[in-house]
Task: structure prediction
Amino acid sequence: MSTGATTGTFQHSVCVYDDDRQFLEAAVPFLEEGLALGEPALAVTTPANLELMSAGLGKRAGELDYAESAFFGRRPAQRIAAFYRYWKTHAAVPGSAPRVRILAEPVWAGRSAREIAAWTRMESALNVVLAPASISMICPYDARTLGSDIVADALCTHPAVTTGERSSPSGPYVDPAAFARSHPGGPLAAPPADAASFAFDGDLRALRRFIAGRAAEYGVAGDRADMLVLAVSEAGAYLKRRPPGGAVLRTWEQPGAIVCDFRQPGGSIDDPFLGLRPAELEPGDGDGLWLTNQICDWMEIRSGADGCAVQLQVPSRHDQEMVAQPGIRYPA
Amino acid sequence: MTSSYAVYDDGVLRITSTTNPPGLAISGEIDESTYPGLLSALQRSADGRVEIHFSLGGLKYCDLAGLRAIVCATGADGSDLGLNGRHGERRVVLHEVPAQIITVLRIVGWDTTPGLTLDMPSPGAEPRPAGNMHGSAVV
Result:
C-alpha cells in the first residue's frame, strides 16, 4: 500500500469516510503495514476512533503510538511541530527506521470560521514544510460530521486520496503556494484608537522594555510575560532585517487576548510558509518567527501594496487554562 | 563555580571566564547586537575542550539564535569549535538555567541534543543528563 503521489519524501493522503468500517479499512492496513516493516506508527484521532483501531489492530495495537487529536498540537503551528518532532525522534536518527507512519485526523467540530481556515491552510502547508520528512500520513475526514466545504478543501490540500488499501492522486489538489495565495485569511483586527503605540526603529532592547511594560499593564506576569517578550522581540528582529527595517507596534487587549500588531509600511513578505518550518540547529530564514508562532495563540502575516503586517495574540490574564493545567501551552 | 575574568562586556552582555568547572558565566541579554560577542567567547572557551560548563543564572534574555550558539558548542550541528574533527563529542553542561530557556529548549527540541546536559536546580541532586523522551541518558 502506498500513499504516494507526492514529491519528496513526505506522503500526504486524505481518507474521506462515511462509517466506521470505511475508517478501519483504510486505517488498519496502513498502520499494520508500517508496524510490520518496523516503522514507528502514530495515530492521532478521536477517542472513538482510537478505540475502534485498538480493536481492529488486535495484538499489534500495543505497538502503536497514539494521541487524541485535541491534545497533539493545539494550534496549526504546534501541530506541524509535533509531527516533525515525532519524525525527528523516531526516524531521523542513525540506526532508526527509514520512515514513520502517522494517521492524523484534525479536529473540526466547534471551530470558528477563522480557525477552520487556519487548519485548512495548515493541511496544505504540510506538503511544503514537511517535505524533507520521511513521513507517510493519512488524514481521515469524517463525512458524517463535516461540512461539504471542509471535505472539498481536503481534496485540494492533499495530493492523494486513500480508500481502503488503494491510493490515487487527488484531482482537485492545488499547489500549496497557490492555495495559500487563494486563501490569504481575512482582514486583521484593526488597532483601536486607544491602542498603545511604539515606534520600533530597530532597537530590540527598547522594544522588549516596551512590551514588558505593556504586559505588566495588562496584568500578565512571570513566565507568561517573559514568553510574550520573547515572541515580540523575535518578530521585531525579523522585521528589522527586512527593508525598510523599522515598524510600528501597537498593542491592545481584547476579550481573552492581548494583541500585538506590527505594521511595516513599504515592507513586503512573500513567503506563505513563513513561521511554519520547524527550527533546526542549522539556521534557517524565519526561525525566530517560528518560535513566535509556537508561543502565540495566533500569528498572522499579511502583505500588500501598503506594506506588511505581523499580528500576534497571546492569552490575556483571564485565561484559566494555564492556571488549571500548567504546561498545557508550553512544554512543562 | 569560580569566576576569574571578563572575556566580554559591552554593558548589555557580560561573559566571564570560569575555572572550576572550566567554562563561562553568561549574564545580561543576548540578541543580534550581542551575538558576535557571544559567539567569539564561546569559540575561544570551547577550543580544545571536550567538556565545558556555562552558567546562565544571570541571563535576562536570550533569542533563538543565541540559544542555538550555546547548544552548538556541543558540535552537534557539525561545527568544529576546536573539537578537531570529533563532531558532537563535546559535553556541554548548562547550570542555573532560567525557566524560559528550559521552555524554549523543549519547544524547539534542542533539550535532547547529544552532549547537552542541564544541571537542574534540585537540592542535593547530581546533574542530570538532558535525556530524551524515553528518559535515557544523553552524554
Chain A has a mean pLDDT of 94.
